[in-house]
Amino acid sequence: MHRPFLPVSLFLVTSLVSCDKLAPAQPAVKAAESAEAHLQPELVTRFGERVLVFAEHPHVAAGSAATFMVHLSVLATGEPVRSGVAKVRVGTREFRIEAPKSPGIFPVVVTPDATGRFPLAIGIESEQVSETVECGELYVHPNAGAAEAAAAVVEPVIASNQVPFTFQQQWPLRLLLAKVERKDLARRLVVPASVRLPDGASAEVHAPVGGRLAPVAGRTLPRSGERVKAGEVLCTVEPPADAATIAQLHALRLELEMRLVEAVHEVEHSKLRRSFAQRELDRLKTLRPDGLSTLPELDAAELEVEMTIHEEELALGRKQTVERLLADRVPFDAQTGSPVVRVQVLAPIDGVVTWAPNSAGASVTPDMELLRIVDTSRVWIEGRVSEFDLHRLSRELGATATFLGLAGERLELAGAPYIAPRVSEESRAVLVRFAAENKDNKLIDGQLAELELRTEVVRGALAIPHEAIVMDQGVPTAYVMRSGELFEKRQLRLGVRDGATVEVLEGLAENERVATRGAYIVRLSSMAPASMEHHDH
Question: In this predicted model, what pLDDT tens digit does every residue of 439-470 receive, in sequence order?
């Protein structure tokens, strides 16, 4: 059991960027005259990229063992480091412990063998996080007496705006910290809005002719909720045929079949002629060495071969043309022998079928509506801006849309908006429209929204998350970590709020760390300080 103590920011290394020295601390707070002197530990607080290091240790003497109570927190989650090897490096010497005494607390025994000032670094290697953090310098006293003399100070007094808050209190809350940083923030004008489908995003599909509705071979008719592509054959309409039309179709089929027979005969005949011409050319070539054939005979034979090849190619082309005409001809019913005319119905746009009431075999009339298709891949976000706020609008800064039915959904809208050229006489407002991609089809036509229109950008504003602000008697307040187990209450003067980020005009300095998740509990603990003094290792 470690004795109760109240951590004091005066004995910390609170700078998060510089490598200041850990020389024997000197009290800066006056105690009451009756306060008793005792040994004060040295405290170290450092922020790495992934881990928060807080170490408490006695003043160190050369050749004497000193226990560093190293507290390690995962910055991203606020959890204690529950396993792994903790290391304390003093100069070139390294001291380690293979496992924590309890979650987050690693008692590392350090025994330096030389006097002076040495670079101090503390590291952790675990499944949760691995990092080594530079912690300034450690002063090693020449002997135990000098170390005790440096540590014999008067018990400090906790200032009224300081709040002790131990890691045993922080870890169950998964307390998180945010760095005070400079950011570009935007002033915003918030206006009511709604989601709308763009012009041309919906289409009605009508019957091109009257007749019987039929599905595409191997498929069913499209139904509501089905996605279709532009140019896709959705269904067919089979118009009725009279006797004269049927007779013409039969005659056409018969004529095409006869032409196909002729084309096949012509192809075979041209092949025979080419074969004969090639054999004659080969015969004359074999006779030429013996002088039994002449050059004019060879030239004539070669010409004949070329002509027969050309004739064969023409015959093949005519045959393929007739075959295509036969393939594209009106099909005939296998049972009745009657021609079946099918007129294709194509999808005019990409989208989702939203209305399809007809069934296969239904009788349709010309221009009768068969389907409705809606393209939901893009939407318009339309807001209404009062004419008295028009001077604040910027066409370059974009906007952010939020939606009443989608908690936490924020859609960034870039590019110049469309601003309507007239003011509504009823509402005295002007329509402002942004186009947006509708990823995962979350946004629905008619959905209520809010537009946060950026009107001005504040460059390099000192900013913190809005979650870090706690209202204390109507005053915005933040709690700054002065050391690992000591927070300081700061009253703030706020500026621009940009979404979840707020500008701080007064009360904080750049690179300080403020509590975000758990900040309200820190405030509550400041109201009952007596209950917060118990500190176990």
Answer: 888 999 999 999 999 888 899 999 999 999 99
- Based on the domain organization, do 329 and 354 belong to the same domain? no
Q: Could you give phi then psi for residue 277, rounded to 5 degrees?
A: -65, -40
Retrieve residue 39's tokens.
Answer: 């040994």
Cβ neighbours, 10 Å, residue 42: 23
Both 143 and 228 in a single domain? no
| pTM > 0.85: yes or no | no
Please provide the size of the chain in residues: 537
pLDDT, averaged across the chain: 86
- Answer positive or negative: Cα dihedral of 354, 359, 360, 362: negative
Q: 528 and 392: one domain?
A: yes
Place of tokens 């393209």: 375
Domain holding 128: CATH number?
2.60.40.10
| Residues 72 and 112 placed together within one structural domain of the fold | yes
- Say whether both 232 and 270 belong to one domain: no
Residue 291 has pLDDT above 50, yes or no: yes
Does residue 174 lie within any of the structural domains? no
Percent pLDDT > 90 in the chain is 58
Q: Classify strands 152-154 and 37-39 as parallel, antiparallel or unpaired.
A: antiparallel
Look up the domain containing 265 and give its range.
241-337
The answer to whether the beta carbons of residues 485 and 225 sit under 8 Å apart is no
Are residue 416 and residue 509 in the same domain, yes or no? Answer: yes
Query: Sign of torsion, CA 142 145 148 150?
Result: negative
